Amino acid sequence: MESAPTFRFEPSSPELTLRPSAAAQAVARQYRQKRPTAWQIKRADRVRAEARARVAEKGGDPKAPQAVLAESELQFGQYRGQTLQWLLANDVGYACSIVESHERERNSGNTTQTPLMQNKDALVSYARLFPPMVAAIDRRRMREGSRSVRGLDDTLVGMGAHGHRTFKSLYEARDPESRSYVQWLRQQKVGAGSKMHDLQSYVLARDKEQKTPEARPAHVLPRPGAASSDPAEPSDADLLAAAMEVDSPRSSRDAEPAGPPVQLSASGAELLPRAWRRTLPEEQHEWVGRALFRRTAGGKVVLRSELRLWWSPPGARLLYTQPPATAHPFFQRPFFLWLPYRMWAYHFRCPPCGGKLVGAGFYKTVRRVLDRSGWYFMGTEYLECGSCHRKVAGWSQDILEQLDMAHREQFPAVLTYKLSCDRAVIGQLKERTLGNSASRLRASLVEQHTREWMAQSMLYLSVLRKLRAPGAAPQASLALPPMHPVPGVSWLISVYVRDALTRLDETKARVTSIFGDILKMDSSKKVTKKLAGGAAGTAAWVTNVGNEHGQVLMSVLTAAEGDGLADMAAGLMRRYRAAGEAPPKVLYVDRDCCVTVGRSKTAQTFHEWHELVVRLDVWHLMRRFARGVTTDSHQLYGPFMARLSLSIFEWDAEDVARLREAKQSEEGGGAHVKLSAKELARHCRRRTRGAAETERLLREALDAFWEATDTMGVPLIDRARMEEIWSTQRRHLDCIQDPAGVELYTKTGELTKGGVKLPVYRCARGSTSLESFHLHLCRFIPGTSASDVHFQVYLLEGLVRWNENRGRAAVEGGQRSALRCYSARVQHSFDQLTRELLGRTLVDTYTQPREYTGELIGVEYLYSQTGAVLHCDLGDPDAPDGTEEAEEDWEDGDEGFVEEEAEGDIPLLEHHAALLQTAEPSGTPAAAVAEASASQSGSARPPPSRDGGGDHGMEVQQAEEEEDDVVGPDGHGGYQHVVALAHGLAELRHHAFVTQRQAREIVALWQKMSDRDKAAVTFPPRHQDRLVQGRFKTSHRRAHTPGVDSVKRAVLGQGAGAAQSPKASRLVEAVLLELCRAHSHEATTLAGVRMHRWGAVMSEYRQIRDNVLNCPTLMACTRIQLYDVNKRTLTQWHNQRSKAMMRETVAIAVPGPSAPETAAEPLPAPRTLLPKPRQPDQPLQHRLPADASGLAVTIRGPLAPELYDLVIAAASVGVSSSSSASATPATPSTSATPSGATPSTSAGAGVAAPTTAPASAAATAPAPPPPPPLLLERCHGQQHGGTDSSRRRNVVPGRKDAT
């Protein structure tokens, strides 16, 4: 279908006819004659939906936006109900007036989105799709004075002899006829809205423009190459002749040549080297060129003499009075200029041949560096060897490694092939914590970059909006500089790995410099699953060895846990032996702790440590016992494990008394204190009880829990399995005892609680600290997978930071230190300077590295077992952009559970009411009748009134008269005491707490109950022994009881349990009967709120239950079990009881069956449980370069003569004093000079011991005090080693390849 309207044009003119058509006049006339009715404006989505339906009906594409706009209905005015296509075809004038008025309203700031405004927005969008309509709207705006007349330049006159000409051609014509016509038109009086009026308005407006000269923005520069009338600006006749004067020696002693003032270039971009213009974004050209370069009087472009590393852009002006000519000032970024040879006169050596490097212009590429809120750019210099003529970039790794640490730390970036990354960005990946991944970092960078780019764009657009002509249309040609995308995740990871590989040897040395007296060894499998690539699936375990401070001595990946650790153990023993450290005293393991005869396997592995005591970790032993329980979600699992711990350990009495005193002082003297497990572990010490006592207590604990079940009748212990575990694990009771003479606790601090000072302890027993490390180890490797090199780097970096943090925590006041550094080289250099110049150390090193012992760590150890080789060379570092990780689909299923109906009849409690009656005189007919009536029919009198308080009712129940033993409905005696206690508990529903008097009375009633009623409640089983179908049929755990998992997983909520029927306990049943009697009606009122009967009963039962549980006296002196009952179990119990009473009444006359109720043959034996699961010292010599700044020398002399003279003088004084003091040569320093020069004797001066200088050096170089140092001698000597042409090539500034 055709979506464009059929326009009507004026005769012999391209202008649209503004008058309405006959059809439009008819519709308007009908609208005026018709009685006005209410018109419901349709929502925009409904208008679009109806339009799509009409488009589809006409055979068009309902997804085409133009077609949908064409069929959209007008929702206002005399043409409402007509389509927009019809409106433009029949009344252009009306449409233009609506569009012009609506756009003016929008430009004034009205951004409302009402259905009417959205309908007008659709009209504007549709009308501006067609150029004739745009021209008609522009003419309308010009008549209204809201648009510049220059928009009508191409409008045809459309009348008279000049009808074929445009407004612009007629106005600018110079022939007499046209000029006369224009002059005549200026003086005429014409009617508004006519073509002549449009032409006259255009002419008068152009006349006004001629009187006002066009103002050029003050900040806009003249066109490059154009002549300037300003004498301060030079012409650009001579373009760039040289890039810089890097080899021309100039210092503060060299004065600038006298002459006229140096003129500036008209364009900063022309001052840039040509290669820089190709790699530097256009918006950076102007300011970088003007900031870094200048033009001399002879027209030569040179580098400015006032150099610095960081250059900040001038940015946009604060105020604009004219629209800015370009958006470049708003999007400028900083520039980093890296010229170590030029700036610091640094002496460099050629890496291959050792020759002297001199400046050779600028490096051709400007690098883009990723920063936290954007990008900045970096340029450097070329250095050329005078011997082999090899060129090296100033930021290459060979050059950076020759810098001393003070100057090396000034370089801010990590370089890759195409892009670079600021070290501050990559530093955010170094902290190995949960969630600190490259994906998170990239998301943060994208957010910051986007915000920065939007802020710059808003500033630029706000200036344009402020200075825009009123009513001006949006400029389609206006474009913003695009935001450079943030690289992908894989690139960020490759940069992090590349940065870490530069200090790989130092990192290994720090890992192999950790020692300890109490060691722990444990293995884990989880982190091995992250090893991907060619090494995927080759690692079975990661084994870690830690010390008493929580530091990790070694972490290796192995293909097996047993014999594969022999090399690791040999490396640890060699480390202790080489460092002269005393062997460790204790080693905690999780297996291979003992044997029946001879030495254990672990002791044989560490055979050099004869005094080493091997102990089994207690936690692992308890986990072995835990395999004998049916499920770890059992309600008695926690108490069972606590009982096992109590059987092994005993607490220090003094520590416990101190903690209890602090708690009582904090909560009040008479308070019932409860010591939490966390408080005990932090403030109290404990020790093992001894093997014999432990065995006796463990046997006792097992006997206590053999028959224990939870509220669903599920047993806690699988007896057959637990008996087997006990028979095999009891021999390890000697292995878990504390070693004699070894103190396992460390006091780490104190805190005050309730005015009592409590010590804080850290325990070194067992491998608990390694279990915590295993959790962090998974966080060391971010994501779900990593290649072998990435895995190795993440592991080493994480170990270094982990050990440093643990070492800091082991030192008094270490955690309060405000300074923190993890780089050993930076710490070493900083410590040297502060010791030499300040006489003290400002930053402590908590893991001082020693020389690397050569031990294999991590993946290297794994590859030594498999025969593979770990290649740490990443090859091409420019990785492609990272790809987004696909989100895995997952379903959160609603695991329902259908509760089965309870079987059997609920016994009748027809004696309940009779036991609550007040005693009457014995033998009276009334008493006898009442007793008989109550005992047979179950009716009862109301309970005693509460007006006199609840205590009176309890006193009645505690009457000292002797009563006969009453048998309850279940056939057991002592039921009268159950009812009395239930009545006493029911009185608690009116109280928010239990008083001491009430507690004593309830305890007295509890003591009267029989032993059977005092016993623990036995809950009926609610699971199936064999589950053959359903969603819970299969369990993912190795050991489970069939059917138990299905029931447990059906209970929703953390710590929740299944509600029980009241019939499980005589006491609970009696309490609920009391409450049901109190609320005999279907509805009741509590605190003015009308509540259903069962809701009121449940509310009061929970109140009673809370009062009992919150009363320490009742919990200590009784074992009252008021388990959970919900409304469903309550109503089921009540309904079944009522039906059973009716059924028994009817069944009295029915004879019972003659056959027995039990089967003659026994039932088949149940399925057996699944088989048991499978049991399964010398400091590091930092070879850092000496400071060689100021020592660069060319044929013309030193680049920094003043500094050079000072260094020479200081070296000569040092050499003279050392020569007079001793005839023997000085001991070399640990710091090495660049490119293998002789080590210096002074780290501050960075010079070496003197030797005899060559004759050529003495003849050409500036005459230093004899004898010069060897380093300075080489600086001079290299300038004479080659032909004259090669020497000249090194000093000619501004070579072509530099630009």
Automatic annotation (TrEMBL):
<feature type="region of interest" description="Disordered">
    <location>
        <begin position="874"/>
        <end position="895"/>
    </location>
</feature>
<dbReference type="Pfam" id="PF20499">
    <property type="entry name" value="DUF6729"/>
</dbReference>
<feature type="domain" description="DUF6729">
    <location>
        <begin position="276"/>
        <end position="501"/>
    </location>
</feature>
<feature type="region of interest" description="Disordered">
    <location>
        <begin position="921"/>
        <end position="972"/>
    </location>
</feature>
<feature type="compositionally biased region" description="Basic and acidic residues">
    <location>
        <begin position="208"/>
        <end position="217"/>
    </location>
</feature>
<feature type="compositionally biased region" description="Low complexity">
    <location>
        <begin position="1218"/>
        <end position="1261"/>
    </location>
</feature>
<feature type="region of interest" description="Disordered">
    <location>
        <begin position="208"/>
        <end position="265"/>
    </location>
</feature>
<feature type="compositionally biased region" description="Acidic residues">
    <location>
        <begin position="875"/>
        <end position="895"/>
    </location>
</feature>
<feature type="region of interest" description="Disordered">
    <location>
        <begin position="1152"/>
        <end position="1185"/>
    </location>
</feature>
<protein>
    <recommendedName>
        <fullName>DUF6729 domain-containing protein</fullName>
    </recommendedName>
</protein>
<feature type="compositionally biased region" description="Acidic residues">
    <location>
        <begin position="958"/>
        <end position="967"/>
    </location>
</feature>
<feature type="compositionally biased region" description="Basic and acidic residues">
    <location>
        <begin position="247"/>
        <end position="256"/>
    </location>
</feature>
<feature type="region of interest" description="Disordered">
    <location>
        <begin position="1218"/>
        <end position="1299"/>
    </location>
</feature>
<dbReference type="InterPro" id="IPR046616">
    <property type="entry name" value="DUF6729"/>
</dbReference>
<feature type="compositionally biased region" description="Low complexity">
    <location>
        <begin position="926"/>
        <end position="940"/>
    </location>
</feature>
<feature type="compositionally biased region" description="Low complexity">
    <location>
        <begin position="1155"/>
        <end position="1171"/>
    </location>
</feature>
<feature type="compositionally biased region" description="Low complexity">
    <location>
        <begin position="224"/>
        <end position="238"/>
    </location>
</feature>
